[in-house]
Write a structure and sequence with these properties.
porin activity; TolC-like; alpha+beta; membrane; about 450 residues; elongated; two-stranded parallel ribbon; OMP_efflux; Outer membrane efflux proteins (OEP); Outer membrane protein TolC
Amino acid sequence: MLVLLLLFSGKALHAQKRDLSLAEALALAAKGNKELQVQMLEEIRFQEITRETQSYLLPNISANAAYSRYFDRQVIFLPGSFAGTNKPVQEVAVGGKNAFNGFLSLSQPLFMESVRREKQAALINERIQKERTIDLQSQLAFQISASYFELLLMNSQLSLQQQSLSRNIRALIDTRALFAQGRGLKVDTLRSYIAVENLKSSISYLKNNIEVSGIRLKRLMGLNEVSEIKPTDSLNIEHDQAGFYTLDQALQTAALNRHDINLQKLSIEHGQKQLSVRKAEYLPQISVVGQYQVQAQADNLNFGNYSLPRTSFLGLQLTIPIFNGNRTNAQLNQARIKVRQEKIRLSDLQEEMNAELAAIISRWKEANAQLIVQKTTVEAAELNYTMMNDRYKNGLSSRLELTDAELSLTQGKINYLQAVYNLKVLYVELQRSLGLLKL
């Protein structure tokens, strides 16, 4: 009994469905998508890189302490006359066997142009990561919208196929009854049977695709639920279809809003800044340096008897680069090449954007035309089915003709749904290409 209860509860859990609108799907993805979470952390990481770069311009203060035990006293070398001997050089043992040393060091850069420019480059990197996040959000919004519309399409197709199956089952029952009465042909019964089995196969295939699409959509949203997704929106044309027919207007909008274009421009700016960083390495560096030191040496550990001589200084340190094996020159050439590469990529990206928008707008016009055609076809198929149904009821047509009219009507409605789906996906794709799609 317990095993049966667990089995039935598992099936009930699996059968649960979660109502979900497109707006809710996008909101869930903004919080749960793993790739987006990684990119947001990348933003934070680059903020820390900027802080690290800025730290090279701030004071560097360190405290150090050391203790050494000498088994033999330290030796210094003096002229023999200083040591009271006739040797040219005389070694002299000095110092205590216990040596203590503590000092506080200070270093404050006053002029370090390469680091200052490196900080500016790091700030540009922060902006690059923000643009990447926004661009990823746009791509994610398109993927979720397309997957959601696909789920809507397949659910609508499933509903139409199930309605068609019900009608064809009734037709099969009728043809069998007519065949049993000797008023129908065996081929009519066979054809109705084949139609029913084909529809059952199509329905099974659609159900499997709906399950797979639901899994893919849940992964994009970052959901780990076992419940199936039930889209609550409908395949209706709600947006303005005439606003983006002009290619020039689309190109102007995209040039201002495309995040990948902005990202590439920032990459060029970052490359130019890196070039200036390399040039700044030829400049001198000036720093304030200082130290406060306390020392003590003795043969014993009677700290109370120690004398603690102190040494302190404060000064300026100048560093002038003279020659480093042409390393800076090689880095300069690398930076110049990088800038040229990024400019070529920008040009290629702009050409790709132009071609993409032209293709989308062309497909958009064709999709609108197909929508009108399919709408007219559905109206004609509905009229044809109504007429054939009336003729069949009055004995003026065969069940086979009515079945053909029903199949034409179902296929016409499916084609119309496909046309609506294509238009909605193209609209979202156009919004993404214009840089207007947000998560």
